[in-house]
Specification:
Strand 6 and strand 7 form a beta hairpin. Helices cover 5% and strands 57% of the residues. The protein is built from two helices and 16 strands. It is mainly beta and 313 residues long. The radius of gyration is 21 Å and the shape is globular. Strands 1-2-3-4-5-6-7-8-9-10-11-12-13-14 form a 14-stranded antiparallel barrel. A two-stranded antiparallel ribbon has the order 15-16. The N and C termini lie far apart (57 Å).
Length: 313
């Protein structure tokens, strides 16, 4: 049976306008957190697939999928990130497709590094009215819209010693506040979003690294604070195990575990719902998976022997 109410539909439109792509593994989706981090990724190149599904016990699932290529020092110190995004939400099958281009560089200052980035993006959104019923005529006739989005980011990275490093960054997303509305008046704008991200990595011994993480974002009246810790354990020369426990305050506890074998990394996470919505969701939150393939440049020396460049930073 097809059911919908005007006020619920209005709420969905407002929510769609005020919330961005939402990953619990935000540290694996740097294009949505701080695109300057492409300049200090561990390897020269990376390919990533990221998938999230949530609210499947409450309504039609909200599914988000992204594909990302990251290249460090592509041209004269500039690094590049290319991302495609597909997001589908709710009964209206509200979809967002996007292409993001992240361009970043770095400047050495004393013993630290200043990182800066610009991220232009193209978005296309579409809505399906077939499963929606209105109790009165609404001036919402558009089925799709497109807009250009612009974001900036700045970070400071500092190797404290051989065993530890620190990074703090601030990003401004939707600086141009593009209009996005399916009404004829088209007066709703995508609000500016500010993201602060910081992590401190400390090697406790030859095998283990601990990394406290803090993520905070502000968009319109929405606030999000996530804090926790990630752990990395080297099993042997080829295998590493990662794990994380994070708290998205007022919403969910996030548990993650990953496995890295040579150039391939797999990570899965699960959100345990702690908000008031847990009564409807039976405490079931979101499932999330990421797959990353990383590699370094290969060059030839005078003897035509291939060598691998050392890892940067």
């Amino acid at each position: 049976m097809r059911t919908a109410f005007v006020f619920l539909f209005s709420l969905s439109i407002i929510s769609s306008s005020s919330q961005d792509t939402h990953y619990s593994q935000f540290y694996n989706s740097i294009q949505f957190v701080n695109p300057t981090l492409f300049s200090i990724q561990k390897t020269d190149y990376s390919l990533q697939i990221h998938r999230r599904s949530q609210w499947y016990t409450v309504t039609k699932p909200f599914n988000t999928t992204s594909f990302t290529f990251g290249g460090k020092n592509i041209y004269k110190g500039f690094s590049l990130g290319l991302t495609t995004l597909n997001d589908i939400a709710g009964d209206s099958r509200f979809s967002t497709n996007a292409a993001l281009i992240s361009i970043s560089n770095k400047v050495l200052i004393n013993e630290g590094i200043i990182l800066y980035a610009i991220q232009p993006s193209f978005y296309q959104q579409r809505i399906d009215y077939n499963d929606l019923i209105f109790i009165q005529n609404e001036p919402i006739n558009m089925r799709s819209l497109s807009f250009i989005d612009l974001s900036f980011a700045l970070s400071y990275y500092k190797p404290v010693d051989k065993e530890s490093s620190f990074i703090f960054g601030v990003s401004l997303f939707h600086v141009n506040e593009p209009r996005q509305s399916f009404s004829q008046t088209n007066t709703v704008s995508l609000p500016l979003k500010t993201v602060c991200y910081s992590t401190f990595s400390k090697k406790t011994n030859l095998q283990n690294t601990v990394s406290p993480i803090v993520f905070f974002s502000i968009q319109n009246k929405t606030r999000e604070l996530v804090a926790g810790c990630s752990f990395n354990s080297i099993i042997n020369d080829e295998i590493e195990i990662t794990s994380s426990i994070l708290n998205r305050y007022g919403d969910a506890i996030i548990l993650a575990i990953g496995l890295k074998n040579k150039n391939i990394k797999l990570e899965a996470s699960y959100d345990i719902n702690t908000s008031t919505l847990r009564n409807a969701s039976n405490t079931i939150g979101a499932l999330e998976f990421s797959f990353v393939y990383e590699w370094n440049k290969k060059i030839k020396n005078n003897n035509d022997k291939e060598i691998i460049c050392p890892k940067y930073l």
